[in-house]
Amino acid sequence: MRLTKLALLLCLSFPLxxxxxxxxxxxxxxxxxxxxxxxENVKFQTLTVNTGATQWxxxxxxxxxxVYTIENEEPRxxxxxxxxxxxxxxxxxxxxxxxxxxxxxxxxSGRRLLYRVILIKDGRRLLETDFKGxxxxxxxxxxxPPQDFRAGGDVSVTYKNSSTGxxxxxxxxxxxxxxxxxxxxxxxxxxxxxxxxxxxxTPTIVLLNLYAPWGNLxxxxxxxxxxxxSLDGQxxxxxxxxxxxxxxxxxxxxxxxxxxxxxxxxxxxxxxxYTGGGKAVYELRPNxxxxxxxxxxxxxxxxxxxxxxxxxxxxxQSVVSGASLEWKFLNAFTLNGEYQASAFKADLKSExxxxxxxxxxxxxxxxxxxxxxxxxLSRVDAKFASLASPSVIPDRLTYDAEAGVYPADWLSFSxxxxxxxxNLANDPGKTATTQTQTNLSNTLRLFGGSMLTTSMMxxxxxxxxxxxxxxxxxxxxxxxxxxxxxHTVNISAQTSDFKxxxxxxxxxxxxxxxxxxxxxxxxxxxxxSGMVNSVTKDKIDASSNKNNSFTGNITYGIPRRAMxxxxxxxxxxNKNSSLVTPxxxxxxxxxxxxxxxKSRSSKFTFGVGSSxxxxxxxxxxxxxxxxxxxxxxxxx
Length: 636
Fold this sequence. Notes:
With about 625 residues, this protein is mainly β. Helix content is about 0%, strand content about 65%. Among the domains are: about 25-135, Immunoglobulin-like (Sandwich), CATH 2.60.40; about 215-395, Porin. The longest helix has 4 residues, at about 165.
């Protein structure tokens, strides 16, 4: 499937982070199919435009996606997809896209997951989408009966194969989701292991959370946070420990935040990067807390083999330390302040002294029953660097504000404003950028069930001089969620316009319409379906990119035989009239599964699927594939 097909769901309503001389404009990001069946692949399709003044050289940038669960109304890191490094360079004004694949664990049936896509160039995050959700089709789970020692969950073993390569794609997947309690401690264990001939064990997800009177221990795929400037939501494979006693609280962690990747002819490779640190918090008064933190991040220079002097990649290190303060006053106000100092070495093999920088952040919150307000200020100088907090951009002054009004349970209004400027030292050799983003949204609940949401976003980026960067994006979105007895229907429409006053990039106009629903026809029969239509038009060369996607799912239960049959299909098409990358393709996926409930604690699944891609412009690209799987689930 060509990357140009990734124009399927233009979602410019998501906040982006753009910085430096390199900049990008998100055209869309979408998870397909949505809903996705547990145990199957979901693809995060993303398309951006290079709105900067320089070309993205191949090998200098890569894509990765992070997947999160929702716990206590907050996102919690689950896993990270394999990074994808495109083989193409992206010139200024050109479009670059990616398709990242994530296998949804069987044990997450019936849950809604979140994801975000990250574009990293030259070791820094050039673009990061906001969280977006996708639904995993629900599967029943029967909890174990209560007992003194409680441990229960679900373990599954799946075998998969496909016709590509002569049925030589053997793959076994072991997944487990176990919760339990031992004496006064409780635990949660999740794992998702992939087994193949070439790689006997690939731990895609491994997480153990232990909650005990002596502290909380997390091991595996974790995403701890110390402070926004030192270490913030950095996914890692490691260990963290939290302990609170009386007025003291302590957090310690260590782990690998970047996996090593050997260099190739077109890619310089990546060192393994490790991070360790801690934070100590002391409660001076019931409403006043003081924190001290320290974070060390370092590349392992021996984690990959560099066999040529042409490779210019150097191992790096950053040390960040500082203090933060939290003060709650007048019942409804909270003031947070943070100051951090960093020491960064761009080449550990060099004898040069570390470059030192500072950064600070202040935030004031107000929360009452009907109103929520927040205002923030942060300043990070050009020499500040924290490898464990890649979303912190050096040489940037940022102001942001948020407001929410909740006059009734069925009505809410929210507004957000964010602006930043860089090149704080007014270096004449650098382009100064000012970017401003404004969001307005309203949610209205009608008749006790219907939910109508409207939103508007404006994003402007202005360089100094303006001839280098001057663009504006306007996005409008309307969505309706309508329950009808036991059924649910969702409708969404969106328009977006991108205008570049410098003419370095083409002006774009986009529309998006989606319709989906889930229906319970009878106690035995349930249906779900959805469709998405998106069109992106280039106002300069009159080209267009049209995408259509249709999904459907049917589940039929046969109680007398303790069986259920599930059929789902996805049909997607793309037509691109671009003179540079024209395309006309379609993809059809069809899957059938039969579930046999052998007992109250075990069940077998047998499935077969087919996938066919048709390229109407070049039949040599046509492909077809048949897949087979069998799965054993055991619940206890």
